[in-house]
Write a structure and sequence with these properties.
Largest sheet: 6 strands, mixed, barrel
Strand content: 15-25%
Oligomer: single chain
Mean pLDDT: 82
Low-confidence stretches: 1-8, 50-54, 61-65, 468-476
Number of strands: 21
Structural class: alpha+beta
Helix content: 40-55%
Amino acid sequence: MTFFLWNRQKRESELEEELQSHLRMAVRDRTGRGETEEEASGAARRELGNIGLIKEVTKEMWGWASFERLMQDLRYGLRMLRKSPGFTAIAILTLALGIGANTALFSVVNGVLFNPLPYPHPEQLVWLAESKPNFATGSISFPNFLDWQKNNQTFTSMGLSRGYSYNLTGLGEAEQLRGRLISSDFFAVLGVNPAMGRSFAPGEDAIGAAPIAMISGGLWKRKFASSPEILGKSLTLDGKAYTIVGVVPASFELSLGGFHDIDVYVPVGQWGNPLLPKRGAGLGFHGIGRLKPGVTIEQARADMQGVTQGLAAAYPDTDKGIGAGVFSLKQTMVKDLQVFLLVLLAAVGFVLLIACVNVANLMLARSSVRTREFAIRTAMGASQGRLLRQLLTESLLLAFAGGTIGLLLAGWGTNAAIAQLPVTLPRAADIGLDARVLLFTLLITLACGIFFGLGPALKSARPNLHDTLKEGGRGGSGSRHRAQGVFVAVEMAMALVLLIAAGLMIRSLSALWNVNPGFDSHNLLTFGVALPPSMNMADPAAIRAALRRVDQELAAVPGVQSVSLSWAATPIVSDDEDLFWIEGQPKPTSDNEMNMALSYVVEESYLNVMRTPLERGRFFTAQDNENSSRVVVVDDSFRKQYFGDKDPIGRHIFLTNKGGRAEIVGVVAHVKQWGLDSDDKEKLHAQLYFPYMQLPDEAMALSWNGTGVMVRYDPKAPAIGESMRAAIKRISSEHVMTSTQTMDSIISDSLATQQVSLILLGAFAALALGLASSGIYGVISYVVEQRTQEIGVRVALGAKRTDVLRLILGTGMKMAGIGVAIGLAGAFGLTQLMASLLFGVSATDPLTFTVVAVLLTSVALTACSIPARRAMRVDPMVALRYE
């Protein structure tokens, strides 16, 4: 302790000596230029004021090490804030909104982007796919996956999965469950242990193994009341009994496509698809893997390249040109949201800066009424550092009060943000106010207190003692006015950036809604129908008859205008691909050399349902059935890509999965399958249509469990969805209707990222605009008050009211103009960061920049005009007597 006190005194002495040395040199320099010693001393002290204050406040900060002096500062600060309840309430509320919004959004960014995945050694986890000539991230064939497991040198384990729907019967009303077909070591890769029972053992995922299943914690609670006797019980899925061997923890979540609200997990070998054991059939499978300790993703890619090259040599017909895609699991989960969230975090950070600047302006305005207090305290011996420390104490009190309330608001705001963010937001379970978020809130609160408090404190802690005491508390305002002008310009600049960002999102979303998707989404309903489990692998003719019955019953529902059964023909929702080659061209030597197109399996009424234009030829008719020659319809993109300007009608193509040779009978308009903004070069665009009833028998045998339905309905028809459900149940109580959605809602969901961006950026921009306009209004009001006497003199000497108006407006618009100019320059660079979120508009769109600049200037002009008009009404006689 003795050493500490000695060191403190020594440091204080050194600081004082250094300041006095600077002062003597500055005085000597000025007296050498002809100034009196008193003038030189005063000027030098003002010039060296900031240096002195910084050094003195460093010395004074030692005082905070004393608990007694700290409590004295806090008590005085609280007393002064209580004396100005209006100012205190506005400042705290402004800071609470800014800090709360930042905390809420940072908790989302932290949970989604920054937190590690909730699995052991998450850095070792990767996502696996097959890279193909037509797809960079294609699905993996089951035989290839087994060879990947066996031949790799860089993975400790690999798992495989794909989505699948099961009809559950025997436990009340029949319903459809969301399921996953998984390999036996899928959960072992992730390091997830069952809540009860066991995971699948090696070999239990083989084709022909005993039927077993794991159920989710949610299904365990919903159907079995969380009974501890669940293990060994039977679950009837698609008419087949599965023995329950384990329960997956209710907290388990894997934020990848298709892993949302899974009810049941079944070994992949239980799938009855005849293509499963065939090499080259991906069937929608993707994998996950765990790298060996110390192995990098680049090393794993090199290893897998060797594995796939070996398979290509061994199986050239199916594996030629096939590679392995190895990607970070975390990056795969969040890649589509990374830019989106970081842009929003930057935007809400701007809001916080604007809030801080606004509070700084409030503190400057408030300090104008405290100049006499500061002068008296200085005259009584208080040092500038002592005043600065007291003012910083008050600003930190405001900041921590705002931060505390902001943290409470963030708890609500985080839930609100999650509700507004896209439905499939990955890692939603990891979002919350954890230690990192609390530390973030503490740091930004401390930074805010220093940021908005330091500038006003530096201005206020150097009162002009002589002038202030002589004028009775009304000191000079020039430097304070300039500081407020700088703050207003900063507010205007940041508000402009946010307004431009919101304007770009408005234009982008407007462009998206004006995109022609290739169909009419209004009054269009889509859902799935699963036939009874007794139809599983039934005779294809019986399945066709059952589907025709569904078709007839739905078409007879009042309000239904047209109906089409479909398979992978719901834009944005489902897709399927087909390999083909064109007759008359050289036949490919392997599947991987074939062409690929999106394949829609539909009925003859599909064009009427979707209102997709027919461009040439014809569409299907009722005669295009299982007994007629195969036909196919292609879209305009298919025609351009494979036939150029030639007419494809009458040409033939060979489809690998649709029974071989088919004649092209028509061309339809292109449909935006991947969304309204879809022009992704990695995704397929050529599309073909195939008659539902011409599906080969082996494919028809699988369709009983996953037939889609598209319905065009009269908007005046009441409760069309319930009418559809009732019609399905009239056929059989074991028919299940699933996933009812309107096409408008599907499109709206696909634009969730853009819509949320618009909502949040718009809210941030509106808040920034309000703060900036109130800031410039407050500054101009302060200017009018400070210059009342001057205005009175001008009017008394003959100045016109319009001259006064021009004077005040000129002062305000100068600040606004500087802010707009800085904001335009900043926006030109910063909006480039959100370019990937835009559609149909440039990140530097001149129209948006111009309109927003004019809008903000107009708002600033309006804010300035109110105090300016008040200045016009100043009575010269009253003003000349103004204190």
